[in-house]
Amino acid sequence: MPIAETEKTPPPDLRARGRTARTAPDPDPRRLLVERIIESRSLGKSELLARFLRYVCDRQIRGREAEITELQIGVKVFGRPPGYNSNEDNIVRNYARTLRKRLDDYFKREGWEEPVVLRIPRGGYIPDFAPRVGPGVARFESAQIAEDLETEESVDIEQEIAEPVLTAREEALHTTPRPNLIAGAILLCAALCLFSFLAGQGRLDWFQSRSARSSRLLWSQIFSDKRDTFVVPADGGLVMMQSFTREKVSLPEYVIGSYRTEVEIDRGLKGLLETAGPQDQARLVSKVAVIAARRYTSVADLGLSAKLAQLKSVVPERLVIRFARDLRMDDLHTGNAILLGSSDANPWVSLFEPQLNFQFSRGIEFGGSGTIRNTKPLPGEQAAYASITGDLTNATYGLIAYVPNLENTGHVLLVEGVNMAGTQAAGEFLLSPEQMQPLIERALDAHGHLQSFEILLKTTSIAGNASGAQVLSERIHPAEW
Questions:
Q1: Which residues pair with 452 in a beta bridge?
Q2: Residue that terminates a domain, selected from 85, 109, 133
């Protein structure tokens, strides 16, 4: 139970440890450790990670380790139905990897003084509480790292200063000093010192190009050391299944997985099965069910995910590449995200579409392009944009949108296309600092804060690949939007 607001707030270093201790008399120290980890910055604000950690530790402390299995965790923590197929749904393994990284981060940083270390060894999910070996080691390493950093910074600065000073002294031995030369040497020394200091502090924005500054501004909002950033490729199996059933899967259906059952697929295929025999009907339903269950994504999404992971602004321990089927609502409440593909391929996009001007709608049945609807066309703009079969220009379209997350505490990037080429063009445009620079600058408010925006792009599709992109339209939304 939280501390009442009227109580005296304990010192920061005792706050997390004292809160749990007052909620129950003489609690198990292992449970206190778990709660300190959950309240730490290392774990972030992920409710699912907290539930995961509490569940496995509670069962281990109670001596009920037989309940710490992938299936039980899937059911008890992630709401999966009893007996679900964990080979097709690996959400527990995905979150376990993230949880192990968060635990390592906690004991290296905030929890370096903890006398007991908590680990979840690979190959299983049973937690291990063990005394820290050499409690002074972590403290020594932390102090040594800080000392090393200070030494490196001072050496760099001293080297930059030493050379011009030495040169000035040598010159003074052979020539008669003149006031303007002395002043120039002093200014040169000051400039070199400032440059070296800024380099050490990572503050070279003044010396960067405008495009680099704009790019850094955008990515610093998406990648943070305070919350996870989820890169979510589109679900290619979902796209293929919908091309057969001709029905769009809603987000609730996608989350619970009901659309993948043979009963639902059989219902969706009724139009195709009218002239087929019973055996052919059963065979087609089974094959479509297999397609829907598999984890497919496009080459364009795979390449874009890899490029995003290599950006300099990425915080590696906070980057999570997660298949759309494994994402959870909690992730979009507390984290940042980059969602690839339209809502047909990535249903999570539907959470953000209502606030956009450019929205996707279903395309022509059996492989036709999706359509981008322009809900409020400006003069000279079309009401809809789609890739039309037989178009000699092979025109196709993509969309980039930057919006708040569900709690307005982080940010979400949508990278969509009416087809694979459209998504590819949007991704390449997004990763080009030169192309994004003027749009980002226009999206800044009077205080230099980046506002929400949408960018509609047109490209040419050649053999399914994009060949450059041009901006057709944009929308910039004020902060209160």
A1: 477
A2: 133
For residues 72 and 82, give the distance between their C-alpha atoms in angstroms, rounded to a whole number: 8
Residue 299 CA to residue 108 CA, distance in Å, equals: 37
Give 112's contacts (C-beta < 8 A, 6+ positions apart): 138, 139, 142
Per DSSP (E only), the strands in 346-410 are 358-361, 371-374, 384-386, 395-404
What would the pLDDT profile of 7-61 be if each residue is shown by its tens digit? 333 443 433 433 444 444 447 899 999 999 999 988 877 889 999 999 999 999 9
In a domain, 169, yes or no: yes
Q: Are strands 336-340 and 465-477 parallel, antiparallel or unpaired?
A: unpaired
Band (pLDDT 50/70/90 cuts) for residue 88 is: confident
> 181: which 2 tokens?
């030369």
- Same domain? For 165 and 254 the reply is no
Regarding whether 163 and 265 lie in a shared domain, the answer is: no
Decide: pTM greater than 0.85: no
Tally Cβ neighbours within 10 Å of residue 360.
23
C-alpha of 117 from chain center: 28
The answer on 434 and 392 residing in a single domain is yes
Of the two residues 68 and 157, the one the predictor is more confident about is 68
